[in-house]
Design the sequence.
């Protein structure tokens, strides 16, 4: 686990207070909201606007913006060139894709363009956010027209900042300084938001490739593929054959646009950050009704049922049990056992999406539990005993009552602790 957030903030120091961070207006995001609202924190005095020009003429190159951390800056992408169009197929996997395999996919009849990116999921306040490390000069052409044509978005990404849709940012705990911690651990790597702009399908937020190591992303484990006038579904079999043995998913983006994912294939999530060691690569199929079926081999390796103090028999991720048992014993030792009500326990391992979405939560990985449900509903202060909260935090759990949209019943592992 890396303390990237603290490191970046230390380099910035007091300069952040004077930083003119931008909120880029890039048309409408997927929810229909405008993306030109200012971010939380300092804002640009003259935010860029998307040209949206039907002719595809790129907007003028912006003046160079401030670089928060020179180690995370790459060359500015300059003027946009090439076709603007979404991908027709998305490949995601847990391993770096072999150059020979990528070349073979490029050469398939019907494949017109291939963009290789690094993709992973960071769990933030119980929601898995898909992060992509990209080449801002070429990836931009796979985003909606307003985003693709706004040079300043990609200048900010090249300078080391984060770009994401406004609708996504509204669900996340963006700091007053404009930084977003990409994970739930206290030392999760934090990246400064430089632009609000809709992204390619299956991507929530993007950074440039210098962030791969800091975010524990797997280099080049995903592809965005265009098929031009060829029906994408006809390419699924040859692409899948070339990827045999890699564990990669081959998804049709028309299905993603309709359902939020392609329900016909095994999904692959590569979790990064504090939960990575306890989750690894998470593969699952969609059952309908918000339910999912994790790969049986993953469940056998990671999920177990055990008896714990106060709650009795529960089913969770194996990694959580040592510190959960230690926390509950500590609760007993402090005379607070009556503050946790076993009859109001709502589960730990719960393989399904967050209600109304296709996003995974820590419950899908068995790394979270809900306590005293009736008096601790979302959006409320809740009635959870603060002594119990303090004990759980001491034993490596984050509490949903601290979140920007509170969930006081919810505790989730945010660091591994080995009791002694």
Sequence:
């Amino acid at each position: 686990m890396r303390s990237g957030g603290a490191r970046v903030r230390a380099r910035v120091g007091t300069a952040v207070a004077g930083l003119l961070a931008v909120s880029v207006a890039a048309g409408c995001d997927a929810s229909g909201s405008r993306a030109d609202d200012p971010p939380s924190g300092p804002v640009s005095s003259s935010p860029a606007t998307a040209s949206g020009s039907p002719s595809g003429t790129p907007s003028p190159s912006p003046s160079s913006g401030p670089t928060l951390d020179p180690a995370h800056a790459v060359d500015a992408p300059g003027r946009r060139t090439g076709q603007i169009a979404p991908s027709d197929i998305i490949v995601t996997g847990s391993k770096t894709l072999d150059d020979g395999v990528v070349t073979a996919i490029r050469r398939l009849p019907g494949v017109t363009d291939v963009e290789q990116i690094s993709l992973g999921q960071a769990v933030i306040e119980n929601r898995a956010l898909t992060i992509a490390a990209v080449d801002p000069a070429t990836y931009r052409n796979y985003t909606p027209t307003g985003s693709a044509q706004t040079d300043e978005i990609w200048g900010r990404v090249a300078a080391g900042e984060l770009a994401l849709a406004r609708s996504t940012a509204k669900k996340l705990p963006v700091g007053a300084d404009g930084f977003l911690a990409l994970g739930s651990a206290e030392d999760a790597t934090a990246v400064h938001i430089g632009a609000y702009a809709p992204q390619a399908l299956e991507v929530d937020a993007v950074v440039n490739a210098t962030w791969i190591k800091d975010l524990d992303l797997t280099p080049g484990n995903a592809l965005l593929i265009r098929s031009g006038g060829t029906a994408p579904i006809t390419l699924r079999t040859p692409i899948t054959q070339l990827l045999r043995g890699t564990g990669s998913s081959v998804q049709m983006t028309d299905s993603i646009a309709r359902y939020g994912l392609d329900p016909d294939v095994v999904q692959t999530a590569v979790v990064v950050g504090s939960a990575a060691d306890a989750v690894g690569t998470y593969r699952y199929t969609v059952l309908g009704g918000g339910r999912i079926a994790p790969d049986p081999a993953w469940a056998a390796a990671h999920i177990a049922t055990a008896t714990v103090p106060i709650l009795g028999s529960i089913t969770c991720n194996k990694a959580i049990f040592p510190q959960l048992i230690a926390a509950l014993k500590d609760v007993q030792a402090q005379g607070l056992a009556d503050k946790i009500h076993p009859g109001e326990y709502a589960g730990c391992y719960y393989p399904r999406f967050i209600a109304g979405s296709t996003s995974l939560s820590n419950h899908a990985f068995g790394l979270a539990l809900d306590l005293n449900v009736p008096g601790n509903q979302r959006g409320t202060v809740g009635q959870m005993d603060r002594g119990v909260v303090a004990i759980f935090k001491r034993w490596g759990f984050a509490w949903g009552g601290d979140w920007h949209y509170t969930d006081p019943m919810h505790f989730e592992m945010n660091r591994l602790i080995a009791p002694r």
